[in-house]
UniProtKB/TrEMBL annotation:
Name of the protein in question: Endonuclease V
Principal subcellular localisation of the protein: cytoplasm
Function noted in UniProt: DNA repair enzyme involved in the repair of deaminated bases. Selectively cleaves double-stranded DNA at the second phosphodiester bond 3' to a deoxyinosine leaving behind the intact lesion on the nicked DNA.
CDD domains: Endonuclease_V (cd06559)
Superkingdom in the source lineage: Archaea
Ligand binding (Mg(2+)): D43, D111
PANTHER family associated with the record: ENDONUCLEASE V
Keywords, comma-separated and alphabetical: Cytoplasm, DNA damage, DNA repair, Endonuclease, Hydrolase, Magnesium, Metal-binding, Nuclease
Record site: Interaction with target DNA: Y81
Record-stated family: Belongs to the endonuclease V family.
Amino acid sequence: MEIRETHSFDLTPGEAVRLQEKLRARISFSGDLDEVSLLAGADASYVKGSNEIHAVVVVLRYPDLAAVERASASIETSFPYIPGLLAFREGPALLEAFRNLRSEPEVIFFDGQGVAHPRGLGIASHMGVLLDRPAVGVAKSLLLGTAAEPGAPRGSTSPILRGGETIGMAVRTKERTQPLYVSVGHRIDLVQAVDLVLATSRGYRLPEPTRQAHLYANAVRRERNGKGGQTSLPSGGR
DNA sequence: GCGACAG
DNA sequence: ATCTTGTCGC
């Protein structure tokens, strides 16, 4: 993918916060999506004792979810994990992975929050704005706000509230598992974002784009890491 | 001041 | 995120 815009990621936490406050104004909460034919999932994995970060993007065809393309990038990061500043840790690697991608997915799922963030600019919104592409935040836990437990059936939802405002939706993508927390990233509305997450969740808690990205990110880390990584193979399950 | 806190 | 084997439940 062509990345027309970027900025320095070599910032102090304070400078990063100011940049978030500035970029948040550019988020579009409305959807301009017609028919989705390609969607992507992005994720990153790390090597325990080092600063290595392996970022990947997996593109799937919609609605059959067949794999179309995978791209990755492995770099050194210096920014630590600070709640609220995740994009400054994973962003550089993710953008590099997108540069290595040839497909043009219409929507991208990110691991983490969209606007359900202290400054309204979680990693999904941040990347969405820089890539100027519809983006959805799919998080496994909450960073901001509260949400009642969604009903038991798959597809049940419950709003993520923050001072009376709905900033996202808790979504039950699979029965008897913890809900996912979906929020608008960029150029999409919450209803469509939730619809897409549910439409791409097939038998697992994580929607396929995110799940495939997770698996690929771990695979990339392992092959680029002959020793320090995990040696056992997934035990499987069917 | 204290606790919470995406990945 | 990462470290880890078996184990309980669907």
